[in-house]
Amino acid sequence: MADWTADSNEALTLSLVRSKLDKDSLAEGKSYEDFHPTFTYPIYGDDEKIYGYKDLVIDLRFTSGSLTQYLNVQYSEKLATSSTVDDVEGTLAKFIPPGYYTDEEAFGKCVEEDATTFKPYGELIYSYTKPSPVKGKGRGVSRAARAAKDVVYEVYHTTWDTPGFREYHRKMQLFILLYIEAGSFINEEEDPWEFVVLYEKQKRPGSDVPTYHFVGYSSLYSFYHFPEKTRLRLSQFVILPPYQKQGLGSQLYKAIYQYVLSKPSVAELTVEDPAEAFEDLRDKNDMEMLQSHRQFIDEAYGSSQSAGGRVGGIGRAGRSGRGGAAQTKGKLGPPADKVWVEKWRKDLKIAGRQFQRLIEMIILLRLDPHDARALKAYRLQVKERLYRFNFEVLVHLDKQERLDKLEETFQSVCDDYARILGHLRQ
Predict the structure, then answer these.
(1) Where, in this chain's numbering, is acetyl-CoA bound (predicted)?
(2) Residues ≥6 apart with Cβ < 8 Å to 350
(3) pLDDT per residue as tens digits for the range 7-26
């Protein structure tokens, strides 16, 4: 049967199809077609194999804006015995809306029409411009000409109440199954869902008519937060492969965070069971936000009254330097001022465990490795959080095992913080 077995991840080929004019204006080598999913087990089974075909290609295309779909299954040979042959199209059709195109010419006409008629659903909440690369120093190229080649990315906020969005969501939700491990479709009958969708916005050559191209999206679920606010939980987050490794995931996360900050009714942003890659993205952006927040940093490290000493009361800071006045002690300690930390956590609307981790990383940035008192205070602060977080496991261990496990976890956490902070310095 090996000759008649296909890997469903390799067989399924995805394309975000642009109009001919838009495709011709792309930079050399740039393409948004012929990429593959990471997972297909929700569709074709845990072993991600399809039986009964040779040279199988599942051609699934989307118009780049409206995500209207075209599906075509091709193969060189098919087994005659129907009992061992998988129904490739029928199986996939259960996961996409009915009415998809099977006629390539008709789909091509839809692509051309879609290019100028599709507009994003919902309310524009965030915009980001990525300057176009200019060879050399750009001599001879006017500012207006360079600006015309800049790429604009826009984020739109929607709910189930947004006209037409429910149908649009049924097209884009397939990407959750294909790119998020253990991802699943959400229940349309649950009202509290909110969505943020990221698009690339391009001007057509020789025209002011914008075209919009789907990049990725995130879904958010609203919970009650005592006494009179709500908590938003980030549930799903996906950027499609042709747009990855360009910083667009960070832009989408920033859009979500700024949206949360702008809503007085929202108490905080939480994340549901984040993957490791998303945790890194979140840590990086949260740390950059904190480091650029002047008031937070001033209070965290303290304001210096002399040229001597270390910043923030860590190490020799907080004591008088030779010939200088004492430095104002910062709130980070260590240990950090818990009341101050909680005040800032609420103001910045960051979930408790995440903000505690950020505080620990901020402290580590300027922790004097030669100051035994500061190192001990920092170690106790981190271990206290770890003990509380892992209490149900640790409480069943004897004292020495518990201490050993805490120390092992502490060292692992410090190593991970060093890795994250290393990325920030790059």
Answers:
(1) 237-239, 244-250
(2) 268, 269, 286, 358
(3) 999 999 999 999 999 998 88
- Nearest-CA neighbor of 185 among 199, 167, 172? 172
83 is in an annotated binding site: no
Residue 272 designated active-site = yes
Q: Are strands 193-203 and 210-225 parallel, antiparallel or unpaired?
A: antiparallel
The answer on whether 343 is annotated among ligand-binding residues is: no
Residue 218 DSSP SS3 = strand
Rounded CA-CA distance 177/333 in Å is: 45
H, E, C per residue of 58-69: EEEEEECCCCCE
Annotated catalytic residue within 188, 272, 342, 401: 272
Q: Which residues pair with 60 in a beta bridge?
A: 14, 71
3-state secondary structure of 323: coil
- 238 annotated as ligand-binding: yes
How many angstroms separate the CA atoms of 389 and 342, rounded?
A: 17
292 among the known binding-site residues?
Answer: no
CB 352 within 8 A of CB 388: no
Is 32 strand, coil or helix?
A: coil
Closest CA to 19 of 104, 148, 110: 110
Q: Where are the alpha helices (DSSP H) in 19-65?
A: 20-24, 41-44
Determine if the pTM surpasses 0.85.
yes
3-state secondary structure of 239: strand
- Bond before 334 cis per omega within 30 degrees: yes
239 is in an annotated binding site: yes
pLDDT tens digits, one per residue of 223-262:
999 999 999 999 999 999 999 999 999 999 999 999 999 9
